[in-house]
Every structure is written in C-alpha cells, then in structure tokens.
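Deviations from the work plan: none for this task. Representative record:
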Amino acid sequence: MGEFDLIARYFTRPAQRALLGVGDDCALLQPRPGTQLAISSDVLVAGRHFFADVKPESLGHKALAVNLSDLAACGARPLAFTLALSLPQVDEPWLADFSRGLWALADAHNCELIGGDTTQGPLNICITVLGETEGQPLLRSQAQPGDELWVSGSLGDAHLALQGLLGRLPVSAALLEQTRQRLERPTPRVALGLALRGIAHAAIDLSDGLVGDLRHVLKASGMGATVQAKLAARLLTAQHHPDWPAVGSTALAHVLAGGDDYELCFTAPPEAHEAVLQAARLTQTPVTRIGRIEAEHGLRLVDAQQQPLPLTVASYDHFAHP
Amino acid sequence: MGEFDLIARYFTRPAQRALLGVGDDCALLQPRPGTQLAISSDVLVAGRHFFADVKPESLGHKALAVNLSDLAACGARPLAFTLALSLPQVDEPWLADFSRGLWALADAHNCELIGGDTTQGPLNICITVLGETEGQPLLRSQAQPGDELWVSGSLGDAHLALQGLLGRLPVSAALLEQTRQRLERPTPRVALGLALRGIAHAAIDLSDGLVGDLRHVLKASGMGATVQAKLAARLLTAQHHPDWPAVGSTALAHVLAGGDDYELCFTAPPEAHEAVLQAARLTQTPVTRIGRIEAEHGLRLVDAQQQPLPLTVASYDHFAHP
C-alpha cells in the first residue's frame, strides 16, 4: 500500500464544516464572523510519550486528546485538525486501530480531520488542532489575587501508572489496569472549558504536572498561590483501590508531580464559586477547589493547620529527563 | 538548557498580527472578515527528506519553504505557522543555525511563528502553516479542457543533486554545488500564487515530481493532458553547466521524475496567456508553457512532431521507496 492509498483508506472523509478537506495542497476553513481562531500543536514520540506496545487505538485517542485539551484550556470549541504521521512501515492492522481511536474522539467533539502529511520514518505523531473562541478566552495570564484555585477530575493516577510500567513502584496488575486508562486515554475537558468562559479567569491544562503547570500560570499572571495539601491529596483516585497501600508512596507526591493528567487547572473569583460548581454539574465534570491565588509571588503548600510543607517536586521537562 | 528555555531563546518573538503567540495553551488569530483560512502540514524526517549532515540553516529554510509552497499552490497569503520539533538533544549551535534559516524565510513572507511543541526524540520537524485566501482559491480540481499547462521556474535540478549525493550519478563537485541549492533551499512561489488568483484555474506545487503531481491535478479535475517533451526538457537548469554532459543522463528524465522542486504547476485558459506572463513578470518568476489540458483522460508525452513518447517515470511515494 502506498502513501496515497493509505491516506485515502484511513484518513479521508468528506469535508463537513470545512470548505475543503483532505486532498488538495491546503485545507480551507471559513471562520465564523466575530470568532477568533485558537491553534495548538502537540507531538507524540514513541518511547517518550508512549510505550512501543501501547494499543494503537489508545494512541490514536491520546494523540488527539492532548491537543483538544489545549483548546479546552483556552475555552475554545474544536473545529478541525491536521495529522502529520511518520511511520516505520505500512502496518494495516495498526493503522486501522489507530485511526479508529482517532476518529472516535474526533467524532465525539465534532472535530474534522482536514489534512496533513504521511511519511516513512521513526513513529512520530504531530497533530495541529484548530478551534474557535468568542469573547474573552481563558488565558494563563489572567489569574487575580483572591481567585480560588480549581482542578478538574483526578490527578496523579497517570503518573502512578507510568511509575508502575517503568518498574519504579510496586503497582499491582489490578491497580495498573485501572490507572493506565488515565495514562493512555486521557479525557480532554472541552465541555468544561467552554462552560467556564466568562466565569474563570485563568486556565491551563495539566500535562507536565500540577506544580510545574501551575507555576506557568503564576508566572504569566505575576501572582503567587497557596495550595492546601489535604485538598490536593484527595485528587488521586488510586488511593481508594484495595491494592494502594502496597505501592508505598503518598497520594500527594503523585498529585503534585503528576504529568499526563490533561485536567484543567483554573482560577475564578470567590463570587463565582457557585457558577463554577454549576458549570461542573452541567458538563458532568468533577471539580475541586485546592487553594487560592495571592499577590505574593511563589507557590506555597500548607497543611490543615496552614503550616508550610516542603515543595520539592519538579515539573516534566523533555530535555531534563533523557 | 531545558525545554522552556529552548523555546524562549530560539523560537519566541512578540506576537505581531496574532492576538496571542507562543506561550499559552493555544495561539489566537483573528481572521479578516470575508477571508477563508488555508491550512497545510508538512513533516521533514532525517534520512528521508534531508541528509543528516545538511546545514541546519538550510533545513530551517526548507522546513518552512515546503509549507509555504502549499499556500502558494492555493493562492493563499501566509499568516502564521506552528513548529513541532523533535530533537535528539539540545544542540545550541544547531538550534541557532536552524532558527536563523527559519526566521529569515518567515520574515521574508511576513509569516509569524505562533506556537508549537518541542520534545526529545529522533529529529523530526513538523510545521503547520496558516494562510488566508479571498475569492476563488487555486484548486487541483479546476483544470478545464483547452487550458494551457504551465510550470514556474526550473525543474529537475533538485533531483539531479539528490542522485549525485546518493552516488547514483557522476555529478561533479561544481555541478553538485549549483544544483544542491535547489534541493536544500527551495523557493516557495508565494507571490506568483497570489498573482495567479483570478487568472489560473488549477494549481499544485511540485514536491513529488512533475508526472506524479500533474496526475493528481488530472485526476481531481477529471481531465487528461499532453506535455511537449521538448518544452519540458528545457526546464532543467543543470544542462547549461559545463559539467553536464558527464552526468550521462537526459534532461527530460530529471524534469519528469523530479521531486523536491517546489515549483508551481498550473493551468489557465488560452485567453489568459498574456495575463499569466504579466503575473510572472510582476512577481519576477519565470514561467514556461509545457502542454495543454484535454478532456481525454490520461497523461501523454509527445515529441516536436506530436509523436507519442514513452512515459514510464513514477512519482515519489514515501512508502514505495523504502
């Protein structure tokens, strides 16, 4: 099977909303008047972002999910995406599975595949996603003093699964089975991001871990924050599993260091507290308040008695973790 | 140097036209009313699209050039691009050279870097470019019977250089030096593409070779074509070099099989002949008429006496040339 047959078989559908989809030199989109276009690119590399033996269907899901998560963090509605795929060889069962995972998530978000590129090379998946925003987008730079600090869903389970798969922690098969779903099939919080427009101030998606990503928000906003350790520690789902104690680590460590969660971390004024909970209910997305934005720079972790706790975890950096 | 320092040092500039550039979850663009957005992605893989020892400055140029060439083929004006870069390690001199080549071409086309991704992995460069079109874009599907068939610039020199570098043809150092410029630093014909709006019917950029890419146009348009071998053969610049005879192959073979030329192949009605030449003059881009579009399906090559010649060259297919 050649390049063009491959594209035709696995990655081509008639254009729906796009003026022109796969098959010409460019795709064409007609943005709606009054909207801005939100654009983000994310790349997944074998051996770095996923294990070589991951299910290709999960990989197709995740490659798009991490991009949709960026749209969610801006409060943007997904429109379309391009896929640039480097493959060692044409493996039809792999392509069938990969594309099934990709299409399923794309359909769930009404996000159209409009173009891309396919080439022979080490496995590398680069997706660029396009969305539309109206009014004020959610930006990293908009956190205000006094804002409540929120996180969607659960945190740290993906990190726990990764540590288990790497053999760094004794994670039982049952616990691994549960947590690796979070690592391999993250849920982009698109509906929540849309519902938070006009309610939240700042937002970011948590791909590199809570501490590292929250620091991006604080830096961009010129703010500081205090996180309640007890509230944050509750975010690890794995601690409710019967096998959890045998792992021998703390829930807080996984929540803070994290990575690969693709939850939203956002700030909103205290008077919007009920509106945040309402947005969460409407979109069926759990949210937890874990702290507060403050004018004093720096990130502080405190216990239930408001006493400072050490905060030594680092964020994920692709070139610092070779 | 970590991921975020790398992005800050080599790939961040203040947003100009974009509402938001590098540094948040998404970039934001405000398309002008009445325009459509043209989008294209191209990926370059080490060992497949370029030699490992290519000058990084040339690579930065080429990675963007092949994307701008897609915009040119639609008659779109470049706006912005994202860069997803996988690198084996942080090599600062390499990054400085690569980014210099990238910025130089971006600046020449007023095309802004608005976001992307950086990760550790086998060298892989994925660029997604965004442009704007107004009115009727140039599409592969618009060729009409009787249209004249045109090509910009020269064809086949990049192919000759590649054959020389691969040791498949005896290309002298002097001839290689001249032709590898065409391979490593292609010129995207953006200005010509813009000038041909409203004049040309169909267009495509020649990345996989004249025969293969022209067949895409014919298939999309439901047309056939006859190419004059004598006119096409003139497109190889290398044949005027004193070392050319020693190569021992025909100009026509390089022109037809080609690849990596990034010239425009386009069709326009005979009554637009002067308008095409005027567009070429205004944009200082040579153009050559090499044949004609016909209702009869198929691609035909004929000699000066209109006698058929064999047409056996294949187009480049990434999975058929392992």
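The mean pLDDT of chain A is 92.
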